[in-house]
């Protein structure tokens, strides 16, 4: 790929074949992940734990509680479920944005993010299960005594949020998010596959309408789901920028996943339509939205810093100085790995056009934004009892392997390139 334009024949009727060896290795990885998961649980059960103030109930509980190993278990499961839900939803969002923007350059790779949406039913079901089984360990607001004025543990602030933070309404919102995202995804996918069978431009026009509807819904639900699934862990704390912050983290992780998939498929001999110019655009997306994530992170931090209001600053104080400094190192690593590293590596034009650089940055960003969600969730649930061990590694292996299995299976069931997309010619001759 030394030249920026195509000199090799482009095959539009490409079909991805899911190698049996890769499939087997993914199942082996899931098996190893399960073993690590079980080992991690056993270590938590039998390892001695000292009393941790407020670890079970979260930073805002204000009481003293002994650490429950279940808190770390359920928070890790919740963290990974939210993280991979976001990547799946961003795949749909990316496709929708391309349609609404009448973008042509991405038409040759749109089947990759399009495949992400099939992971949503899995995370949707698991999200409901986790909430029922581990909700009390993750969310302080789920405890009934907080709303009983006769109970000494009554919390006036949390009781004031009961109209929004109550289990029936919470579950309704959760079901609505997944149902709305997945239904619109299936409709978009249907039009995309029908377009392969006919050259009828009406499928393209319908996709634009469906994409516009999805973007409007996602504009609201990406923020409200962030409030529900992440922000409500620290029930007393609030931030008007938090929805944007979670979206930015999801979006960068989603872009990294798209880029990494394109690179791996290209290296495997697929996607003959992709040239250095497509890679350059994907690199620019990662570069730009890493800066956007940093902007939102810094804006949120700066507003809270100079206002210096105790109920706002507690969030950052806990992560910088609280819990015996458990999160201080990660706090600064988060900034380096999600901003400085991609900024410096992808700054030049050439770096964005070479697969090795894109591969490295994509992997680093996926790890970095997982750590970002880790910092959002762990202090408010397990406090100083957080850590990285077999439990954390095992759960990540299970989720990552399952995600790859679903995406690869979806890619193998349809042509890899939307050959009748009306703007495919623009993608073929894309040059910047």
From TrEMBL:
Keywords of the record: Membrane, Transmembrane, Transmembrane helix
Transmembrane regions? 26-47, 82-103, 115-133, 170-188, 208-230, 242-265, 285-307, 327-347, 356-376, 388-411
Full protein name: Quinol:cytochrome C oxidoreductase
Q: What organism does the UniProt record list as the source?
A: Rhodocytophaga aerolata
Please spell out the taxonomic lineage of the organism that makes this protein.
Answer: Bacteria, Pseudomonadati, Bacteroidota, Cytophagia, Cytophagales
């Amino acid at each position: 790929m030394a030249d920026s334009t195509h000199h090799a024949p482009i095959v539009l009727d490409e079909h991805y074949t899911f190698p049996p060896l890769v499939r087997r290795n993914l199942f082996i990885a899931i098996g190893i992940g399960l073993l690590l998961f079980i080992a991690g649980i056993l270590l938590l059960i039998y390892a001695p734990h000292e009393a941790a103030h407020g670890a079970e109930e979260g930073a805002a509980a204000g009481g003293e509680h002994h650490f429950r190993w279940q808190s770390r278990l359920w928070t890790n499961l919740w963290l990974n479920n939210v993280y991979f839900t976001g990547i799946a939803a961003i795949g749909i969002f990316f496709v929708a944005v391309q349609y609404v923007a009448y973008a042509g350059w991405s038409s040759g790779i749109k089947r990759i993010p399009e495949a992400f949406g099939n992971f949503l039913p899995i995370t949707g079901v698991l999200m409901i299960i986790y909430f029922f089984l581990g909700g009390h360990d993750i969310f302080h607001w789920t405890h009934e005594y907080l709303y009983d004025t006769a109970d000494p543990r009554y919390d006036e602030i949390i009781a004031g949020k009961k109209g929004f933070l109550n289990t029936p309404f919470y579950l309704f919102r959760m079901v609505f998010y997944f149902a709305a995202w997945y239904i619109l995804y299936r409709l978009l996918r249907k039009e995309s596959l029908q377009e392969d069978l006919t050259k009828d431009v009406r499928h393209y026009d319908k996709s634009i309408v469906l994409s516009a509807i999805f973007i409007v819904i996602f504009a609201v639900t990406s923020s409200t789901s962030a409030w529900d699934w992440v922000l409500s862990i620290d029930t007393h704390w609030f931030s008007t920028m938090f929805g944007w912050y979670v979206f930015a983290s999801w979006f960068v992780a989603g872009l990294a996943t798209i880029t990494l998939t394109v690179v791996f498929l290209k290296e495997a001999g697929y996607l003959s339509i992709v040239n250095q110019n497509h890679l350059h655009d994907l690199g620019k997306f990662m570069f730009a939205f890493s800066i956007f994530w940093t902007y939102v992170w810094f804006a949120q931090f700066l507003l809270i810093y100079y206002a210096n209001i105790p109920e706002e600053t507690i969030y950052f104080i806990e992560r910088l100085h609280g819990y015996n400094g458990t999160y201080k190192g990660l706090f600064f690593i988060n900034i380096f790995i999600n901003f400085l590293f991609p900024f410096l590596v992808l700054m030049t034009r050439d770096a964005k056009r070479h697969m090795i650089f894109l591969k490295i940055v994509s992997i680093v960003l996926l790890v970095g934004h997982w750590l970002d969600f880790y910092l959002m969730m762990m202090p408010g649930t397990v406090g100083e009892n957080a850590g990285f061990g077999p439990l954390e590694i095992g759960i990540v292996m299970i989720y990552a392997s399952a995600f790859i299995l679903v995406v690869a299976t979806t890619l193998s069931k349809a042509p890899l390139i939307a050959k009748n997309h009306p703007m495919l010619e623009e993608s073929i001759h894309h040059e910047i």
